[in-house]
User: Fold this.
Amino acid sequence: MATTTLMLKLKVRWWLKFYLVGVLLTARLTRAEPDWVRVRYWIGKGTKIEVR
Assistant:
């Protein structure tokens, strides 16, 4: 049987961690729920997945 190798490479942009911390702090300070659709959108913009 043939062996298949799948490699995933995930790149996270430098600003994504700061954005997520900002969202968390804002949510905690205001006691409001973040807009998860918008957060998911920016996570998608801040990550890059390469499949080899």
User: Anything to note?
Assistant: The first helix runs from residue 16 to 30. The longest strand covers residues 8-12. The mean pLDDT is 95.
